[in-house]
Design goal:
Number of helices: 4
Strand order of the largest sheet: 4-3-2-1-5
Mean pLDDT: 81
Structural class: alpha+beta
Radius of gyration: 31 Å
Low-confidence stretches: none
Number of strands: 5
Strand content: 15-25%
Order of helices and strands: HEEEEEHHH
């Protein structure tokens, strides 16, 4: 056989090996993520539902979907394990608290507010006449 005839088969096999390796890495990462899940963890299912883990069994998890509403899901149905701040932000709309401002920051804000003055954005008569002349095509220059 000629090298030109064998080369496409070698390339196809190489691409297939790379694709399976990538898929195995993703599967391994998903398994590690699901193993880190414990009671109290916020999760997102593959269907986009958010819940809190109550129990973790060998192949299933017990999720609390709402107060007093529980359901069993397969571990494979868990798409992501969320940290507490992200879960609260998404589900409850609670933004993480920002660091407290120091006294210096408050003084700077007060000075900036005091320095703000009302700005007149209206055009003067000369500016309005010049603009009207330009749009009419009759430039007075």
């Amino acid at each position: 056989m000629n090298l030109v005839q064998i080369l496409p088969f070698v390339l196809i096999i190489g691409v297939m090996l790379l694709m399976t390796r990538s898929a195995k890495n993703k599967q391994r990462q998903a398994t590690q993520m699901r193993d880190q899940m414990g009671p109290g963890s916020g999760i997102r299912t593959i269907g986009g539902m958010y819940a809190v883990v109550k129990e973790v069994n060998e192949d299933t998890v017990l999720l609390e979907l709402a107060d007093g509403v529980h359901a069993h899901f397969a571990k494979n149905a868990i798409a992501a394990v969320l940290d507490q701040a992200e879960y609260d932000r998404i589900v409850h709309g609670i933004e993480p608290e920002l660091e407290a401002h120091g006294a210096e920051d408050v003084e700077d804000v007060e000075k900036a507010d005091a320095a703000d003055e009302a700005v007149d954005l209206s055009k003067s008569a000369d500016e309005a006449a010049t603009e009207n002349a330009k749009t009419d095509g009759t430039d007075k220059k």
